[in-house]
Amino acid sequence: MLTGKQKRFLRSKAHHLNPIFQVGKGGVNENMVQQISEALEVRELIKVSVLQNCEYDKQEVADDIATGTKADIVQIIGNTIVLYRESVEQKQLVLP
């Protein structure tokens, strides 16, 4: 779990990022979780956009992705989810 200070730090880092995944009508599936997990290994911090036609609540989508990828939900703002997972091989961010 992330502390408040760490979440603030990660939110400031994520501010300039663009969403690299979109969750649409089909919701979250195994393939998407796998791809997001690989992206987290490379980038550590990513944004996922939940489209208007998604049948699921954005909190459900965030929980599904976080559980599947073992990532932390930094923030859900509007229809955008910010996720963080420490990289094993390519560590870039140093949390306060």
Automatic annotation (TrEMBL):
GO terms for molecular function: RNA binding. Keywords: RNA-binding. The keyword RNA-binding applies. InterPro entries: RNA-binding_CRM, RNA-binding_domain, RNA-binding_YhbY, YhbY-like_sf. Residues 1-96 form the CRM domain. PROSITE patterns: CRM. Pfam families: CRS1_YhbY. This is RNA-binding protein.
